[in-house]
């Protein structure tokens, strides 16, 4: 049963509700702070959700609270599908947080439509996607954190049920699985790669990853990175705790591509190389690898026509 701590019994909800006194979210040994609400902001466009009505969820033994965070900006075309993907999960202990970057289209109207089902949402300008994600981390009260950003979704309704029902994963900090990518006229399934290759590139999709909240609150995203702060975060952890990763061997998420992301790949590779040097795990072999990858992407994006790239992608990933 999805139990919600209620601070004010004047409010009601269609969900199963247990009235309890609010509890301290963090244990005394935890050296991080969890925010129930973001501090006032002069340019804020809106704020709402169950928390603003006095309802808060918590974890139970064998039924950990999972915080799913959606970061969005001007996403009215695809946000509702993402919201429904989260709210339709059969797992009954999910905390849903939406961080909107001050959208100017109909995004806010869609969020308000689901106000009674979202735990907390806020709309205000930010300093980029990783700043918005850091806000979500601060607000998360669950045991695990997943980022399911606008346009993405869980692969099936029972994904969280399969992963977390009666499973706490106490010995791990990162859980990861597989992903389906949709290019419009074709799709392909990308299995998570080997962790031994993590220094070369992301080996699994961010949307198919769950981070232990206690770890993520102490290790948020570096805002000096615009494209690869998640990569920096993961290789920093892997360089010191290789055994803290757990492969779920399940299709976790489905993500869409608008077909223009290739123009950012070269910049992303350069940032990944920067992260490698920052963590000090670079070597002659790795440096040569990144130089070759940058050259390869330059040739692909500058010299090859897009139809050829699409054929290459279909063949490489056995797209359907």
In total, the number of strands is 12
Number of helices: 9
Secondary-structure element order, as H and E? EEEEHEHEHEEHEEEHHEHHH
The percentage of residues in β strands lies in: 15-25%
Through-space gap between termini: 39 Å
Tell me about the largest β-sheet. 10 strands, mixed
Shape: globular
- Unreliable spans are 1-26
Judged by helices, strands and strand pairing, the structural class is alpha/beta
* Computed CA radius of gyration, to the nearest angstrom: 20 Å
Mean pLDDT, to the nearest integer, reads: 86
Which percent range fits the helix content? 25-40%
Structure explained in plain terms:
The protein is 30% helix and 19% strand. The protein is built from 9 helices and 12 strands. Strands 2, 4, 5, 6, 7, 8, 9, 10, 11 and 12 form a 10-stranded mixed β-sheet that branches. It has a two-stranded antiparallel sheet with strand order 1-3. The two termini are 39 Å apart. The model is unreliable at 1-26 (pLDDT under 50).
Quick structural overview:
The chain has 320 residues and is an alpha/beta fold. The chain has helices at 79-87, 107-113, 129-139, 159-164, 213-216, 229-238, 262-279, 284-303, 306-317; strands at 4-6, 46-48, 55-57, 66-72, 94-100, 120-123, 144-147, 153-154, 174-182, 187-190, 209-212, 245-256. The chain contains nine helices and twelve strands.
